[in-house]
Design a protein that fits this description.
The protein has helices at residues 16-24, 27-50, 57-82, 107-127, 131-153, 158-190, 193-216, 227-255, 257-261, 263-267, and strands at residues 87-90, 101-104. By secondary structure, it is mainly alpha-helical. The chain has one domain (26-260): Rhopdopsin 7-helix transmembrane proteins (Up-down Bundle). The protein has a two-stranded antiparallel ribbon. The longest helix has 33 residues, at 158-190. Residues 4-13 and 265-275 have low confidence and may be disordered.
Length: 275
Protein backbone atom coordinates (compact mmCIF):
# COMPACT_ATOMS: atom_id res chain seq x y z
CA UNK A 1 0.00 0.00 0.00
CA UNK A 2 1.35 3.39 -0.94
CA UNK A 3 1.80 5.84 1.90
CA UNK A 4 0.30 9.23 0.98
CA UNK A 5 2.58 12.23 0.89
CA UNK A 6 1.42 14.56 3.67
CA UNK A 7 4.23 17.08 3.41
CA UNK A 8 2.13 19.56 1.48
CA UNK A 9 -0.48 19.54 4.26
CA UNK A 10 1.99 20.56 6.94
CA UNK A 11 1.72 24.20 7.91
CA UNK A 12 4.87 25.58 9.56
CA UNK A 13 4.30 26.97 13.02
CA UNK A 14 4.83 30.65 13.68
CA UNK A 15 8.13 31.15 15.48
CA UNK A 16 9.06 33.28 18.45
CA UNK A 17 10.79 35.57 15.98
CA UNK A 18 7.47 36.12 14.21
CA UNK A 19 5.79 36.95 17.52
CA UNK A 20 8.64 39.31 18.43
CA UNK A 21 8.36 41.03 15.06
CA UNK A 22 4.62 41.48 15.63
CA UNK A 23 5.29 43.06 19.03
CA UNK A 24 7.99 45.35 17.72
CA UNK A 25 5.83 46.36 14.79
CA UNK A 26 2.96 47.49 17.03
CA UNK A 27 3.91 50.54 19.10
CA UNK A 28 0.76 50.35 21.20
CA UNK A 29 1.31 46.69 22.03
CA UNK A 30 5.01 47.09 22.72
CA UNK A 31 4.54 50.12 24.98
CA UNK A 32 1.90 48.28 27.03
CA UNK A 33 4.45 45.59 27.82
CA UNK A 34 7.52 47.72 28.49
CA UNK A 35 5.57 50.11 30.71
CA UNK A 36 4.80 47.20 33.02
CA UNK A 37 8.37 45.92 32.92
CA UNK A 38 9.60 49.34 34.05
CA UNK A 39 6.96 49.70 36.77
CA UNK A 40 7.53 46.16 38.02
CA UNK A 41 11.25 46.83 38.31
CA UNK A 42 10.68 50.07 40.22
CA UNK A 43 8.13 48.35 42.45
CA UNK A 44 10.58 45.59 43.38
CA UNK A 45 13.13 48.15 44.58
CA UNK A 46 10.52 50.22 46.43
CA UNK A 47 8.98 47.18 48.14
CA UNK A 48 12.40 45.88 49.21
CA UNK A 49 13.03 49.25 50.84
CA UNK A 50 9.58 49.37 52.45
CA UNK A 51 9.99 45.92 53.96
CA UNK A 52 13.36 46.56 55.56
CA UNK A 53 11.87 47.23 59.01
CA UNK A 54 9.28 44.42 59.04
CA UNK A 55 10.02 41.95 61.83
CA UNK A 56 6.88 40.04 62.84
CA UNK A 57 6.13 36.70 61.21
CA UNK A 58 2.69 37.65 59.86
CA UNK A 59 3.93 40.95 58.46
CA UNK A 60 6.82 39.12 56.78
CA UNK A 61 4.41 36.69 55.11
CA UNK A 62 2.35 39.61 53.77
CA UNK A 63 5.48 41.41 52.62
CA UNK A 64 6.93 38.29 50.97
CA UNK A 65 3.70 37.53 49.13
CA UNK A 66 3.41 41.14 48.01
CA UNK A 67 7.01 41.26 46.81
CA UNK A 68 6.36 38.21 44.64
CA UNK A 69 3.72 40.12 42.66
CA UNK A 70 6.13 42.44 40.76
CA UNK A 71 8.75 39.68 40.60
CA UNK A 72 6.32 37.44 38.75
CA UNK A 73 5.11 40.33 36.61
CA UNK A 74 8.53 41.44 35.40
CA UNK A 75 9.36 37.87 34.39
CA UNK A 76 6.03 37.45 32.63
CA UNK A 77 6.15 40.73 30.75
CA UNK A 78 9.69 40.00 29.57
CA UNK A 79 8.32 36.73 28.22
CA UNK A 80 5.60 38.61 26.36
CA UNK A 81 7.92 41.32 25.06
CA UNK A 82 10.38 38.73 23.73
CA UNK A 83 7.68 36.71 21.98
CA UNK A 84 8.35 33.70 24.22
CA UNK A 85 4.82 33.57 25.64
CA UNK A 86 2.94 34.84 22.60
CA UNK A 87 1.67 32.97 19.59
CA UNK A 88 -0.68 33.18 16.63
CA UNK A 89 -4.07 31.54 17.14
CA UNK A 90 -6.56 30.93 14.36
CA UNK A 91 -10.01 31.95 15.53
CA UNK A 92 -12.64 29.20 15.16
CA UNK A 93 -15.72 29.31 12.93
CA UNK A 94 -18.46 31.43 14.46
CA UNK A 95 -16.01 33.89 15.98
CA UNK A 96 -16.13 37.47 14.69
CA UNK A 97 -12.60 36.93 13.36
CA UNK A 98 -13.20 33.30 12.35
CA UNK A 99 -10.45 31.91 10.14
CA UNK A 100 -8.07 34.78 10.90
CA UNK A 101 -4.83 34.45 12.85
CA UNK A 102 -4.73 36.62 15.95
CA UNK A 103 -1.70 37.29 18.14
CA UNK A 104 -2.53 35.60 21.45
CA UNK A 105 -0.95 36.87 24.66
CA UNK A 106 -1.40 33.52 26.40
CA UNK A 107 1.48 34.28 28.75
CA UNK A 108 -0.72 36.72 30.64
CA UNK A 109 -2.70 33.80 32.03
CA UNK A 110 0.45 32.28 33.46
CA UNK A 111 1.17 35.60 35.14
CA UNK A 112 -2.27 35.77 36.67
CA UNK A 113 -2.12 32.14 37.79
CA UNK A 114 1.03 32.95 39.79
CA UNK A 115 0.50 36.57 40.86
CA UNK A 116 -3.19 36.66 41.83
CA UNK A 117 -2.74 33.88 44.43
CA UNK A 118 -0.07 36.10 46.02
CA UNK A 119 -2.58 38.95 46.20
CA UNK A 120 -5.11 36.67 47.88
CA UNK A 121 -2.44 35.23 50.20
CA UNK A 122 -1.53 38.74 51.34
CA UNK A 123 -5.20 39.73 51.79
CA UNK A 124 -5.96 36.50 53.61
CA UNK A 125 -3.16 37.02 56.11
CA UNK A 126 -4.14 40.65 56.50
CA UNK A 127 -7.69 39.57 57.40
CA UNK A 128 -6.36 36.59 59.43
CA UNK A 129 -8.69 34.11 57.69
CA UNK A 130 -8.45 30.40 58.48
CA UNK A 131 -6.29 28.12 56.37
CA UNK A 132 -9.18 26.20 54.89
CA UNK A 133 -10.85 29.29 53.48
CA UNK A 134 -7.54 30.66 52.20
CA UNK A 135 -6.69 27.41 50.43
CA UNK A 136 -10.15 27.10 48.84
CA UNK A 137 -10.13 30.66 47.53
CA UNK A 138 -6.60 30.41 46.12
CA UNK A 139 -7.49 27.09 44.47
CA UNK A 140 -10.57 28.67 42.88
CA UNK A 141 -8.43 31.58 41.71
CA UNK A 142 -5.88 29.32 40.01
CA UNK A 143 -8.71 27.34 38.40
CA UNK A 144 -10.17 30.63 37.16
CA UNK A 145 -6.89 31.50 35.43
CA UNK A 146 -6.37 28.04 33.93
CA UNK A 147 -9.88 27.85 32.49
CA UNK A 148 -9.45 31.39 31.21
CA UNK A 149 -6.34 30.22 29.37
CA UNK A 150 -8.35 27.34 27.89
CA UNK A 151 -10.99 29.80 26.69
CA UNK A 152 -8.31 31.85 24.94
CA UNK A 153 -6.64 28.88 23.24
CA UNK A 154 -9.60 26.81 22.01
CA UNK A 155 -9.66 26.89 18.21
CA UNK A 156 -12.05 24.02 17.44
CA UNK A 157 -15.37 25.69 18.16
CA UNK A 158 -16.37 29.12 19.42
CA UNK A 159 -18.93 27.60 21.80
CA UNK A 160 -16.16 25.81 23.70
CA UNK A 161 -14.36 29.12 24.15
CA UNK A 162 -17.43 30.60 25.80
CA UNK A 163 -18.02 27.43 27.84
CA UNK A 164 -14.55 27.72 29.38
CA UNK A 165 -15.15 31.45 29.84
CA UNK A 166 -18.34 30.69 31.80
CA UNK A 167 -16.54 28.14 33.98
CA UNK A 168 -13.78 30.66 34.64
CA UNK A 169 -16.38 33.22 35.71
CA UNK A 170 -17.93 30.64 38.05
CA UNK A 171 -14.59 30.18 39.81
CA UNK A 172 -14.28 33.96 39.94
CA UNK A 173 -17.65 34.11 41.71
CA UNK A 174 -16.18 31.92 44.48
CA UNK A 175 -13.34 34.40 44.94
CA UNK A 176 -15.73 37.35 44.97
CA UNK A 177 -17.95 35.69 47.57
CA UNK A 178 -14.99 35.24 49.91
CA UNK A 179 -13.77 38.81 49.46
CA UNK A 180 -17.21 40.40 49.82
CA UNK A 181 -18.96 38.13 52.32
CA UNK A 182 -16.66 35.85 54.32
CA UNK A 183 -13.33 37.63 54.78
CA UNK A 184 -14.60 41.06 55.94
CA UNK A 185 -15.79 39.54 59.24
CA UNK A 186 -12.35 38.06 59.86
CA UNK A 187 -10.72 41.40 59.05
CA UNK A 188 -13.00 43.17 61.52
CA UNK A 189 -12.06 40.69 64.25
CA UNK A 190 -8.39 41.15 63.44
CA UNK A 191 -8.62 44.96 63.54
CA UNK A 192 -7.57 45.36 59.91
CA UNK A 193 -11.03 45.96 58.44
CA UNK A 194 -10.39 49.56 57.33
CA UNK A 195 -7.42 48.82 55.08
CA UNK A 196 -8.92 45.48 54.08
CA UNK A 197 -12.06 47.28 52.93
CA UNK A 198 -10.03 49.67 50.79
CA UNK A 199 -7.95 46.92 49.21
CA UNK A 200 -10.99 44.68 48.75
CA UNK A 201 -12.85 47.41 46.85
CA UNK A 202 -9.80 48.09 44.69
CA UNK A 203 -9.33 44.38 43.95
CA UNK A 204 -12.97 43.58 43.20
CA UNK A 205 -13.52 46.56 40.89
CA UNK A 206 -10.30 45.99 38.95
CA UNK A 207 -10.62 42.21 38.74
CA UNK A 208 -14.10 42.61 37.26
CA UNK A 209 -12.41 44.47 34.42
CA UNK A 210 -10.47 41.42 33.21
CA UNK A 211 -13.41 39.26 32.07
CA UNK A 212 -14.98 42.39 30.58
CA UNK A 213 -11.87 43.09 28.49
CA UNK A 214 -11.79 39.43 27.43
CA UNK A 215 -15.41 39.51 26.34
CA UNK A 216 -15.06 42.73 24.33
CA UNK A 217 -11.54 42.13 23.00
CA UNK A 218 -10.16 39.98 20.21
CA UNK A 219 -10.49 36.79 22.24
CA UNK A 220 -14.23 37.22 22.81
CA UNK A 221 -16.72 39.21 20.79
CA UNK A 222 -13.96 41.22 19.06
CA UNK A 223 -15.82 44.50 19.55
CA UNK A 224 -12.31 45.85 20.03
CA UNK A 225 -10.15 44.21 17.36
CA UNK A 226 -6.86 45.94 18.12
CA UNK A 227 -4.45 43.67 20.00
CA UNK A 228 -2.59 46.77 21.18
CA UNK A 229 -5.70 48.34 22.70
CA UNK A 230 -6.63 45.07 24.38
CA UNK A 231 -3.10 44.71 25.72
CA UNK A 232 -3.12 48.23 27.15
CA UNK A 233 -6.46 47.52 28.84
CA UNK A 234 -4.96 44.46 30.55
CA UNK A 235 -1.75 46.33 31.37
CA UNK A 236 -3.61 49.27 32.93
CA UNK A 237 -5.60 46.87 35.09
CA UNK A 238 -2.36 45.15 36.12
CA UNK A 239 -0.74 48.43 37.10
CA UNK A 240 -3.48 49.29 39.58
CA UNK A 241 -4.38 45.75 40.69
CA UNK A 242 -0.76 44.83 41.36
CA UNK A 243 1.60 47.74 41.95
CA UNK A 244 -0.80 50.32 43.42
CA UNK A 245 -2.48 47.61 45.51
CA UNK A 246 0.87 46.36 46.78
CA UNK A 247 2.13 49.82 47.65
CA UNK A 248 -1.00 50.66 49.67
CA UNK A 249 -0.83 47.34 51.49
CA UNK A 250 2.86 47.50 52.37
CA UNK A 251 2.65 51.14 53.46
CA UNK A 252 -0.16 50.25 55.88
CA UNK A 253 1.57 47.13 57.19
CA UNK A 254 4.81 49.02 57.82
CA UNK A 255 2.93 51.68 59.78
CA UNK A 256 0.69 49.24 61.67
CA UNK A 257 2.84 46.17 62.20
CA UNK A 258 1.77 45.77 65.80
CA UNK A 259 -1.85 45.39 64.68
CA UNK A 260 -0.87 42.80 62.10
CA UNK A 261 1.35 40.90 64.52
CA UNK A 262 -1.35 40.79 67.19
CA UNK A 263 -4.17 39.74 64.88
CA UNK A 264 -3.96 36.00 65.50
CA UNK A 265 -3.63 36.45 69.24
CA UNK A 266 -6.86 38.45 69.28
CA UNK A 267 -8.77 36.13 66.96
CA UNK A 268 -7.29 32.78 67.75
CA UNK A 269 -6.56 32.25 64.07
CA UNK A 270 -4.85 29.16 62.75
CA UNK A 271 -2.38 30.62 60.30
CA UNK A 272 1.31 29.67 60.17
CA UNK A 273 2.22 32.61 62.39
CA UNK A 274 0.24 31.02 65.22
CA UNK A 275 2.01 27.65 65.29
Amino acid sequence: MQIPDLTTAVVPLQSQADALAAVQGDTLLSSSLWANIALAGISILVFLYMGRTVTSTRAKVIWGATLMIPLVSISSYLGLASGLTMGFTEMPPGHALGGQEVLSQWGRYLTWALSTPMILLALGHLADVDRGSLFAVIAADVAMCVTGLAAALVTSDVLYRWAFYAISCAFFAVVLYALLVEWPASAAAAGTDEIFGTLRALTVVLWLGYPLVWALGVEGLAVVQSVGVTSWAYSALDIFAKYVFSFLLLRWVAANESTVAGASVATGGATPADD
